[in-house]
Amino acid sequence: MGGANIKPEFTSQLQDKRVKRDEDIVFKCNANNLEDVNVVWEKDGQRLYDGDGISISQSRTELSLRISKAKEKDEGKYTIRLSKASESVSHTVKVTVLELDQDWRSIGWGLNVDIKHNLEDLKLKNPQVKHLNFLLHGPVGAGKSSIINSIQSIFMNRVEVGALVAATTGKSFTLTYNSYQIKNIENKALPYVFSDIMGLEIANKEGSHPDDIINILKGHIREGTMFNSSCPVPEKDRNYNRSPTPSDKIHCLISVLPADKISLMEKNNLFEKMGEIRKKASGMDIPQVVFMTHVDSACPVVKDNLTRIYSSKNIKKKMQECSNLTGIPMTCIFPVKNYHEENKLDGNMDSLILDALESVVNFAESYVDRLYKLEH
């Protein structure tokens, strides 16, 4: 007799799973009685059987399913069904595989020395341009100053904090127009100058005035200019450059966007504010890219292992959101992790930053070459 007439019921249930690539998917649950009970596991309505990476087992009242080394194909809805005579009970859960089976963009992990040497040895072809100018703009706390510090750290072979970094409090740390020329460990000035300006605050009445940013692109604003969010720098100001040279102009506009706050930025219309600036830059044919920061906060896979950044579904989704909201193609969007809390260099962080830097240098160099050809 025993449990012959006992209706099958779950005494513990399955839970939804979020797994990384090559991680085992393991489901366990318990039932009140398994005597004469038919146990069936299904994925998306199709029955699962032992073998080919699938292991199904039961002992007394415990039921388990193990799928070895998860891949994209293993994502879906899983159901366990218990049936006995005319009685039946089931439970369904969802498995999300957080990564693609293969990286969708390649990067030279560990090739930092070669890339650094190439960047250090760059000789500009346009004799009117002494260095490439990059303008960083984006919301407060996105990591604009941290990008400058991170790039400088890589070339100095130690963590640097030359540009002061804002906390994510909603108020910009940078109140003036500051430029930072990158130097290497031998104190040699490299042909890369990064400019840092006030963040685009959430409040409409705060942050950099769009007209000031546009004038920076054109080379009208000199370093050290103090900003006033309510009105742009007037032409009569002593820091207004009325006759900018090609060397004064911005050669690449870098939008710095935090991966973990894309939806908040959209809600607060910050993309509209940035869009006006990007439209002007497009009219001047200035290359535009996105450095997408805070990637470790946006994705647990990346937080655990930075080298999985281009297999992370969430990072690719965030990059696509950036592309859709800015109009900048995916090829010009670079996820990076800045030095923030670290006090020692990390090779993988360096690889990501150098990969992005190498690309923007190529874009900027092509732009100044076009300027030279147009004038000659």
From TrEMBL:
Report if keyword Hydrolase is assigned: no
Q: Name one GO biological process term.
A: heart morphogenesis
Q: What organism is this sequence from?
A: Clupea harengus
All residue ranges annotated as the Ig-like domain in the record: 8-96
Coiled-coil ranges (or none): none
Extract the InterPro entries matched here.
Ig-like_dom, Ig_I-set, Ig_sub
The protein's name = Interferon-induced protein 44-like isoform X3
Query: Which of UniProt's keywords are assigned here?
Result: Immunoglobulin domain
Magnesium keyword on record: no
Classification lineage: Eukaryota, Metazoa, Chordata, Craniata, Vertebrata
- Hey, what's the signal peptide range on this chain? none
